[in-house]
Design brief:
By secondary structure, the chain is α/β, with parallel strands linked by helices. The chain contains 10 helices and 13 strands. The chain has helices at about 5-10, 50-70, 115-130, 145-150, 195-205, 225-235, 250-260, 295-305, 315-325, 335-360, and strands spanning about 30-35, 40-45, 75-80, 100-105, 135, 155-160, 165-170, 170, 175-180, 215-220, 240-245, 270-280, 310-315.
Length: about 375
């Protein structure tokens, strides 16, 4: 069957880009159409870099052609983003850390949602896939990563790099790790003010011999505060992953976590949200799901605030046990837990790839006086 361009244009006049009033043809989003027999290539130009809008446009184009022209048409959609660039006076160009390709911040609006567990298993999953991975435990007041990797008693060594002394991260399960927990006693509470904590983090970031990494995961403390700003001032974050549980109390704080990264003065892309403890599955009833904290809460939140949903992790006893003994659950073989973490990891990697293709590198932020504080209104 020979497809006709005019039929394709008519089909595309029935849909619009999300957030725009005009249809795709009137708005100028459709740049070119090429047809050959039953094949069609549509070139789109969008004015927004949002990944969910790009994906929605691709799906809508395919659906419109299949419904209005030919249901068996082979459709390829090429999307180019031509977003207007706005210069932000309160941002400075971030200097990438030599050798580190992507820096991913793992955050949560509140504590107790399993953020560190997600971070540890995501790091190991990335390593299993062949990526070079580092993990910075930035939870100054409650470092748990050393326990989860069974390295509580390890101490980083000093090595010479180009004549300078650098900390050598501890390596476990293929992941390079630094944590304030390596420098304190197990029963010692860290009682530091913000500037002191920020200085310690800077040392672990810049005075460490991370080497070449595809991903550096940063396990942030719960909430939104001084440590988060210190991290985002120190290095250009590629993107943020938000962890939440399904109940409303956690989702309200997760929404605030997303808002922190999306503030004009911070402007860090949010790669998506993870729903932890999504449902309970007893070991003796592996096909049963009990929604103890509510069902699909994080999924609904992702739809509501237009950020990708990265996946759901069940509430399973062996995940907790694995963390307690220092062997992340994703090291198991052929279990539903491993499948869930593998799916999550693949989605994170895909969002990072899409983000790097469609957005410029993130700048490190410059906080001056009260800039960056959500309580300060723009005048």
């Amino acid at each position: 069957m020979q497809l006709k361009k005019e039929d394709i244009y008519k089909a595309l006049e029935t849909i619009s880009v999300a957030g725009e009033g005009q249809n795709m043809v009137e708005s100028g989003a459709v740049q070119n159409i090429i047809t050959f027999a039953d094949e069609v290539i549509v070139d789109l130009k969008l004015s927004t870099p949002a990944l969910h809008i790009k994906k929605r446009a691709e799906v809508d184009v395919m659906k419109a052609i299949h419904e209005h022209v030919y249901e068996k048409a082979k459709v390829k959609v090429n999307v180019k983003v031509d977003a207007p660039k706005e210069k932000k006076v309160n941002e400075i160009k971030g200097k990438p850390i030599p050798g580190i390709q992507n820096i991913i911040a793992i955050a949560s609006g509140k504590g107790g949602v399993g953020k560190s567990t997600i971070t540890a298993n995501l790091a190991v999953s990335l390593s299993k896939m062949g990526f070079r991975v580092g993990l910075l435990d930035a939870d100054i007041y409650g470092p748990s990563i050393p326990t989860m990797f069974d390295v509580e008693n390890e101490k980083p060594l000093s090595v010479k790099v180009n004549g300078k002394s650098k900390m050598k991260p501890i390596e476990s399960y293929g992941v390079k790790i630094l944590s304030i927990g390596f420098f304190t006693k197990p029963n010692q509470a860290v009682i530091w003010r913000g500037p002191m904590a920020g200085k310690a983090l800077n040392q672990m970031i810049f005075d460490a011999n991370w080497g070449k990494l595809d991903f550096l995961l940063v396990d942030l403390p719960p909430g939104t505060g001084d440590i988060h700003l210190s991290i985002m001032q120190s290095m250009p974050i590629t993107g943020a992953v938000i962890v939440s549980t399904p109940q409303n109390v956690a989702l309200a704080d997760a929404r605030k976590g997303v808002a922190m990264f999306q503030q004009k003065s911070i402007n860090v892309p949010v790669l998506g949200i993870v729903e932890n403890m999504a449902y309970f599955t007893p070991e003796e009833l592996p096909d049963n799901k009990y929604y103890i904290f509510g069902e699909a809460g994080a999924k609904r939140l992702s739809d509501d605030i237009n950020i990708p949903f990265l996946g759901e992790i069940p509430l399973v006893q062996s995940i907790r046990e694995s963390g307690d003994v220092g062997r992340p659950a994703t090291l198991q073989e052929a279990t539903p837990i491993v499948d869930a973490f593998d799916e999550l990891t693949k989605n994170v990697v895909q969002e990072v790839v899409d983000r790097n293709e469609n957005l410029p590198p993130t700048d490190a932020i410059k906080i001056t006086t009260m800039a960056g504080c959500s309580a300060v209104k723009n005048k």
